[in-house]
Amino acid sequence: MAQFTAHEVLNQIQAGQSLHKAELSTINLQGSCLDRGDFANAYLRQATLANASCHGADFSRATLILANLRHIDLEQAQLVSAVLIQAHLERANLSRSNATGAKFYGAFLDEANGFKVILNKADFREVSGTRSRFKYASSIEAIFDRSSFSQSCFEAATLTRSQWRQATLTGTSFVTANLEQAVFSEAILVGANLSEINGLSADFSQADLTAATFRQSQLDWADFWNAVLVQADFQKASLFGATLEAANLTRTNFSGADLREANFEKSQLDGACFDGCKVRGALFADATGLSPEQKRWLQRHGALNVE
User: Fold this and answer.
1) Do 209 and 228 meet the contact criterion of CB atoms below 8 Å apart?
2) Which CATH architecture has domain 154-307?
3) This model's pTM is above 0.90
4) Tens of pLDDT along 9-52?
5) Neighbours of 68 (CB within 10 A)
6) pLDDT band at 307 (very low <50, low <70, confident <90, very high)
7) Domains of the chain: which residue ranges?
8) Among 14, 53, 55, which residue's Cα sits nearest to residue 33?
9) Which of 11, 19, 124, 280 could bond to 302 as cystine, CB 3.0-4.6 Å?
10) In Å, how far are 50, 103, 174 from 194, measured between CA atoms?
11) What is the 3 state secondary structure string of 116-136?
């Protein structure tokens, strides 16, 4: 198939003609207006679309491996099942676009804007997305394993059953996000803000949550096995039936939290605060660091195996 020139591409778009399945590898369309262009199934490996306007364009199932998409405007674009492996999307505008099932493996999304973007079942493994914004995004069952999204915003995002194994999320905000059944095992969430999240049955096992905030969060049945929660804040959170076995809870604040039937076996509790908690049925076998006064208070309020 003959390759289109940049001039031919612009003429086709201006005429409202499709570039479906077009061969466009290494093409340079930097700064071009490609609004509402049809690039479905097109081959754009190593193409340059930096600073291009692609508002409402269709890149469904397009190949954009190693493409330069820095500062691109993809607002309301279609990226369904697009392949963007190792593409550069720094400061890209993805707001309100649909990237369901897209492959972003190893891509660069630092400071990108993903407001209300749809990323369900997308692959973000090993992506760099520092200081990016995904407020109100939908990332159901998306995979973020080993990615880096530190100082980013996922506030009010829908992230149910998403996977973040070994991800780096230092200082990232998930305030009011839906993280039900999400997996953050071995992730780094130091200083992260997870206030008011829905974290039902979420998995934070072996994660580093030092100084993380979970105020008023719903964390029933969540798993914090062997997690580091030093100076974490769980004020007024619900942790009914949660697992905190072998967790480091040094100076953790549980004031006003619901800890009924939670498992604190073998946890470190030096300086932890339980003021005003519900603890009936909570297990404290082999836990360390409790003061004699705390032990008496826990026993009086129905905690079990307090030694």
Assistant:
1) yes
2) 3 Solenoid (2.160)
3) yes
4) 999 999 999 999 999 999 999 999 999 999 999 999 999 999 99
5) 21
6) confident
7) 154-307
8) 53
9) 280
10) 34, 27, 5
11) CCECCCCECCCCECCCCECCC
